[in-house]
Specification:
The protein has 2 helices and 2 strands; from the N terminus they run H-H-E-E. By secondary structure, the protein is mainly α. It has one domain.
Length: 75
């Protein structure tokens, strides 16, 4: 893991996928499996937060005066 830089969504997701593959393989000692599971849960939470932030961000419109308003589709 990078020490001083926040990982991107894709890097977090890749790490999460690798941990899942290792755990599915079943050749991980119990203590290590618990540690990997805890790391996976943290990565999943980080990914979820990044997705929610992205969703919030793209649902806003930047007005000419620099303010943000919710995006609404007019029917």
């Amino acid at each position: 893991m990078k020490e001083n830089k926040e990982l991107t969504f894709e890097e977090n997701l890749n790490q999460l996928e690798n941990i899942v593959k290792e755990l599915e393989n079943g050749n991980v000692p119990l203590d290590e499996a618990i540690e990997k599971f805890n790391t996976a849960m943290k990565l999943a939470k980080t990914c979820d937060e990044k997705l929610k932030n992205a969703e919030t961000s793209v649902s806003k419109i930047l007005n000419e005066d620099g303010t943000l308003t919710d995006f609404k589709v007019e029917e």
